[in-house]
Design a protein that fits this description.
The complex is a heterodimer. Chain A is mainly α. Chain A contains three helices and two strands, in the order αααββ. Helices cover 56% and strands 11% of the residues of chain A. In chain A, strands 1-2 form a two-stranded antiparallel sheet. In chain B, helix 2 crosses helix 3. Classes of the chains: A mainly alpha, B alpha+beta.
Chain lengths: 72, 394
């Protein structure tokens, strides 16, 4: 699977759950890997690129979560 | 420089013979607005008996989910200097060895961007840099990185692994604690910087069972140096200890937890079959006793401080593992443990708590470890031994 496509799927998953459920990194890895039939390490690499680009961020509220950064 | 705030309550803590944190904050306040307002805010907290700190959720450096702990004042208008007062965790070198140049580098960065206050070291082990603004985080990270430093762990991540001085300065080290710690840190960089777990995971490496860093009580995974085979005895040196005034019966024989030592005044004997390798006798008679020649580590799992539920001590999961680079056996075991924890752990549940909830037998089965007599939960309690009602009646 193309990494750009994978990044889009991850972003959409986080976007869809915003305001409903905070996702942990492991939730994303498990779900995307199972849905797309790929290895968790592939998802992890794509997620890391999203983090490095600042499209997604880690937040901490009694646990660490992946979220879309707040708009200024 | 005159003080911005009056601090009669804090001033009391400067009295006495011990060094005072108030004195240090006041010294920092001579050139730092952060420290000036920190004194004011702290004085108010002492007066009102309530904290004025809020925990911050979204703060960090790009790409990382760990290493910065957000902290905000709930009365920023009153104390603007500490409106933001974030903590930066810096990954410490194994064994806490620094050159003076390295310490100056850290201090220069912190004087430039932060409060100038540090905490050497935090309970996890990291260098703790106390108090900076959100906009300074990226420049701090950039400067530290350019000098070869990296951030430590925080949140639901692998926390910065730490160890004792090990073979670098200690005659009792059975493993190279510093090398192992460094390898773990390098190997699990991703897990340290990008929180991927139900909760925190701490590694601590102790060179021997004396466990100066208390890894057995403070780490999710404790790696403690040990040996296989017989303790080496120099009978001549034992006699020297006796002639030098040591009461071997009282100080060594009677203190042996498994009662496996005997001394008749001329010969010192150890029943190595029963020895639990606690290191007491070796640590007391360094010249006369030495560990066996086949060195390795005991791996323990599950300790934690009482934050969510009560405190736990680590359990032995591998009585003996050879610890040689590239430590493949250790990493394979850790990966299996994490996989199980990730699958079944609830949010904010430490590995030890998960084992308590689902049972040690389940853990062993899932991770592929064989039950062994050394895996006692606590002295005189064996998790594999179950009494039936009939047995109790007898």
């Amino acid at each position: 699977m193309e990494k750009e496509e994978l990044k889009k799927i991850i972003y959409q998953l986080v976007e869809k759950s915003t305001g409903k459920k905070k996702l942990k990194q492991s939730d994303i890895l498990k779900k995307v890997a199972a849905d797309q039939g790929i290895d968790k390490s592939e998802v992890k690499a794509a997620l890391r690129e999203l983090m490095d680009a600042g499209e997604l961020i880690f937040t901490y509220f009694g646990g660490s979560f992946v979220e879309i950064p707040p708009k200024e | 420089m005159s003080m911005k705030h009056q601090t009669p309550l804090l001033d009391e803590l400067e009295k006495g013979t011990f060094p005072s944190f108030v004195k240090e904050i006041k010294r920092a306040a001579e050139h730092s607005d952060y420290a000036q307002d920190l004194l004011g805010l702290l004085e108010l907290s002492y007066k009102e008996k309530v904290t004025h700190w809020k925990h911050g959720g979204i703060v960090g450096v790009r790409g990382y989910g760990a290493g910065v702990i957000g902290r905000y004042s709930d009365i920023p208008d009153q104390f603007p200097g500490v409106a933001h007062f974030h903590t930066v965790r810096v990954n410490q070198p194994s064994g806490f060895f620094y050159t003076t140049k390295a310490l100056r580098e850290i201090c220069e960065v912190w004087d430039k961007y932060g409060s100038g206050l540090t905490n050497m070291h935090g309970s996890t082990g990291d260098i703790i840099l106390l108090g900076t603004k959100t906009e300074n985080l990226e420049p701090i990270f950039a400067e530290l990185s350019s000098k070869g430093w990296d951030l430590g762990g925080s949140g639901s991540a692998v926390r910065t692994p730490s160890c004792c001085l090990g073979a670098a300065r200690c005659e009792w080290a059975n493993i190279d604690a510093m090398s192992i710690t460094n390898e773990i840190t390098q190997h699990y960089q991703d897990e340290m910087h990008r929180p991927a777990f139900p909760y925190k995971f701490k590694f601590k490496v102790a060179g021997c069972a004396v466990d100066c860093i208390a890894s057995i009580a403070r780490a999710d995974m404790s790696i403690i140096g040990t040996w296989r085979g017989d303790i080496r005895i120099d009978q001549g040196e034992v006699k020297n200890y006796a002639q030098g005034g040591m009461d071997i019966q009282k100080e060594i024989v009677d203190m042996c937890p498994t009662e496996c030592i005997s001394w008749d005044g001329s010969e010192f004997k150890i029943d190595n079959e029963d020895c639990s390798r606690c290191m007491h006798c070796i640590a007391k008679m360094t010249k006369a006793l030495r560990p066996g020649t086949e060195k390795g580590a005991t791996i323990l799992l599950g300790s934690k401080a009482p934050i969510v539920t009560g405190a736990l001590m680590s359990w032995v999961i591998v009585p003996f593992m050879k610890m040689e680079p590239p430590y493949t056996e250790l990493f394979e075991l850790v990966d299996k443990i994490w996989e199980w924890w990730d699958e079944y752990g609830k949010n904010r549940e430490r590995i030890g708590e998960l084992i308590e909830r689902l049972s040690f037998t389940t853990f062993l089965k899932e991770v592929g470890l064989k039950p062994q007599p050394a895996m006692v939960k606590e002295p005189r309690r064996d998790p594999f031994f179950f009494w039936s009602e009939e047995d109790i009646e007898k």
